[in-house]
Amino acid sequence: MSLPADVIYHIFSFLSPCEIVRFRQVSKKSRDLTHSHALWKEVYANARFSRPPGPFSWQSTRYLERTLVQSELVSKTWTSQPPKMLSRTLTNWKGRDYTWTVVLGRWCIFLEGNKIQCHDIDSDTYHSLYDGTTYPNFRFTAHMASTADINGHRVCLLLYHTNDQQSELRRLLAFRVNDNGFSEPEIIGWTHNGSQELDAWQSADGDGFRGSTPFITVRRYHPCLILDVRTRRSYRLPISEMIPNELANQSLADTWYNNVILTKTHVISVSMYTSGPSFDATVLIQAFVVPDSAIPHDVGELRLTHEVILYTYLHSSGLLRNSIVDPVTGSVNIRLLHVTAITPIAEESQLMCLSLALPKPVSNTDVLPISIRSQHLFGSSWEFEHYTVSDDGYVRGLLLTEKGPPYLGFSSVRKFTIDASREECAIAVSDPCPLDLPIQSEDIVLDGIRGRIHYIQDDHDVNVNEVVTIDLA
């Protein structure tokens, strides 16, 4: 007696993507079964390695299968073999503008004159996304926000003008991106009335999706500014009363680090303040939610719900696992990947998992303490880290070591993976491997799903820029 299709699909969901593809060779019936969209949606949802958010209804069977197979093949050798320069692709454009980004590891977006151009790395084709001739002298910052509707991921390009006459003008281009490419842009007029400059080069999502959220960060330094792309309203993060006045009133130069982490349920702010000749460090972690009522305003404040202070020196902080809501207590658990050191001059850095427990507020005025459980993952020396994270806690990344004095490039790399989906995180780190890259960290974009890096290569002899795409696994 033949089994029902849903039972067969459930059985197949325990196989790896590559095993399902191999099973396809058994018979015509097995081939038909393994091309089922329902099957690949279930396999995608249960996969135990890095992948983009999904499965969504717009993601085709071919997209789900190809993405999972590529990521599984990378996972088999990511930490066990040194990086191999397996293939090299170039994105070329004329001019001296360095404004560029890579979307979902496939589309390189760059500014050429007054036009925003797009290079499809997979098909090696070019097309124009936006003609800005009417608004000359602009640049853009790329932001990405995951969405679960039928139209694909939302990608936002925030345009800002560099001439004095239009210095306050900001225009937002909102695209939907699916497996077929970019939709026509929705052009959103948006004026920033404050005197503070926005982050011209800051992207909320430089190394891959960092959570499913409708927000983008348009300024990450104090005062932090968040834009809700659904309502087109801006929110700032208020100063905490937990920070002493002598620290809260410091200049920007004394606030060594500030980062905004966007999650499904909260906006997390991580700030570090220093004081004294020994640079004693105070790290403030805050959680905010957006007010339920849509009160008209130019710039409002997010509502602070939870906060905690740590005393440690901080290098960086990012999302490790997105929000999980306890159905019984209503508390929220969020995991951060925390990079710390004992002192500012410590030669060894520490990768830490911080599990933030946010109890359910009982009123709209409560500010509750955050409970933190930390787990040490890895300690060594490196200067920069790049990683791609899935909402459910699967991470694939690189630890890069500089060569000689700063800004001369990198001499070695370690590849690592983290599984933060369970109670205790598990990490695997490769041995240091030679990697001669004469570039700076901010010029690198990692596609952890495919095991690729993208970086800009400037040829000073000709008026041409190149983004180089290299497969490392």
TrEMBL record:
SMART domains: FBOX. It comes from the Eukaryota. It holds the Pfam family F-box-like. PROSITE patterns: FBOX (PS50181). Residues 1-43 form the F-box domain. CDD domains: F-box_SF. InterPro entries: F-box-like_dom_sf (IPR036047), F-box_dom (IPR001810). This is F-box domain-containing protein. It comes from Boletus edulis BED1.
